[in-house]
Amino acid sequence: MLNPELKLNTKLFDKNVEQLPIRQGFGEGLLEAGEKNLNVVGLCADLTESTKMNLFADKFPNRFIQIGVAEQNLASVASGLAAMGKIPFISSYAMFSPGRNWEQIRTTICYNNRPVKIVGSHAGVSVGPDGGTHQAIEDIAITRVIPRMVVISPCDAIEAKKATLASVETGTPVYLRLAREKTPIMTTEKTPFKIGEAQIFWQSENPKVGIVATGALLYKALEAAKELEKSGIESLVMNLATIKPLDEKALISLAKTTERIVTVEEHQIRGGMGSAVSECLAKNFPVPIEFIGVDDQFGQSGTPDELIEHYNMGTKDILKAVNKILKR
Amino acid sequence: MEITDEKLVELKEKANNIRISLIEALIVAGSGHTAGPLDMADIFTVLFFHTLKHNPKKPDWPERDRVVLSNGHICPVLYSTMAHAGYFPIAELKTLRKFGSRLQGHPHRDFLPSLETSSGPLASGLSQAVGMALSDKIDHGLTSDRRIYALLSDGELESGQTWEAAMLAGKEKLQNLTAVIDRNNIQIDGYTETVMPLESLSNKWLAWNWHVIEIDGHNIEEIADAFEKARAVFGKPTVIIAHTIAGKGVPEFERDYRWHGNPPGKGPTDKVPADKQGEVALGELRTLGGKIRSEHQ
Lengths: 328, 297
Description:
The complex is a heterodimer. Chain A has 11 helices and 14 strands. Chain A is an alpha/beta fold. In chain A, strand 4, helix 4 and strand 5 form a beta-alpha-beta unit. The relative contact order of chain A is 0.14. Chain B has a single domain, classed as 3-Layer(aba) Sandwich (Rossmann fold), CATH 3.40.50.970. In chain B, helix 3 packs across helix 9. In chain B, strands 1-2-3-7-6 form a 5-stranded parallel β-sheet, with helices on both faces. A two-stranded antiparallel sheet of chain B has the order 4-5. In chain B, 39% of the residues lie in helices and 11% in strands. At the A-B interface, helix 3 and helix 4 of A face helix 5 and helix 6 of B.
């Protein structure tokens, strides 16, 4: 059952579950952050509407800087603003930032210890028809490897808003991973959120498997948990919104309880959230793990549903992985 | 600010002492860059001992001007200048590039917090300086009193990020921003015009709506005058193209790109044998008596 303490969206399994793009939550969060904190500034590389930074830009034109198609400059200009006490949010598609400008993020932001917030929209294959060039499925790997970087992958628009507001306060570089498509709303305004804290969204009395998901695919994991319950398999589903710093305590506790883990992410298997989980568990409490994610391939055009299915990241793939791991 | 004759003598001597200290540091380090640090000594001297609003005893003073060194590999001249200005003891220069030293091979703020930025990978300094200038523009408008200085090499202009930053600075009319290009015509693989021609350099900056000043980068008065003129330019950032002689101050090293990335003792040996390079360099500098000749004099 859904964890009642988290005050999740009770209608989340309804056929007409409310859906919103995760990036919308960022846009609203940044607007609110801008109202609360005069040091918040926004910079964008010609994708202001697409990344929903337009809400901030329209309200605070004096604190918005249009950089143009120049993502390397985007990162380093933000570093300079942060050096003067600003809290810059930089937005583009994840493929271009932190994709194209990785070294600038590493050196001028993280090595320099500047609290720039890197907002990568359009992450994952569910970007859809734009095709593989625009589908960032390597971004978690390249951001979590940089010292000082906090990596957050919110599961829905409401969590994205909270993550945006929380990012203002960290004093560190943050990577905020967003998705383009409308995705189901799983949380509510009342659901607690804290950077670095994983949450158990789906509980059961006698769980045999722990499913750890990040981003919008968390919904597929919850669907899978519901299906499993019908066939008498109890599970726990964890929302791992913060990939770095990793909530090791919660993960170890999950592994001890379930002794089997399935990770679910819309990202390359290699280097992603599942890798982070396995690094932690291999060291602290080794258990069998199955990884749901893109298996060393590039994306392509299609509808989000077609692509999720093609790359084996759907509900039935999670069920398959669970059945497989139960036999290990 | 007018430079008196007395001040001029003082600055020339200072520049020479900065050169001596950086060569001494490079000799002890056994690795590092020689040509750029030597040729930028006069500009660093004018900046830190005449132009800049700063307080070495209070490096985090919020009102200070900002200096962003983009080509971090010339840090021996930055460190030497900062030491002579009083940011840290001159004796500490001998720790350059050693384990645990505050003076990392390329500047790192974690080790030396009085640095405005960490640098090494080329061409991101102008962007950071643009960000600093934009911050003041957001807070105080175009007439912000504080100056932001970006120090660039010519070789790094081959990287596109410089031009991304130049475009933005022109668009935003950042009159509080002054960039200085060390136009020494060399880079690690050869002469810039062989590796990748940069000319016509001034026209490139003019095209992005910058005010361009060309100077002799070893003429103290010209350097100081250019920084002053930049303050008076309205609605445009200023770039000072400083024509310098690579390796300036040690005639045996001058104009030779092979001195870009080598310290005395490891440079080309056709003019001076390796084991004499340190001695020759210090000998030349110690007898200059603060009288670096400008090429145009």
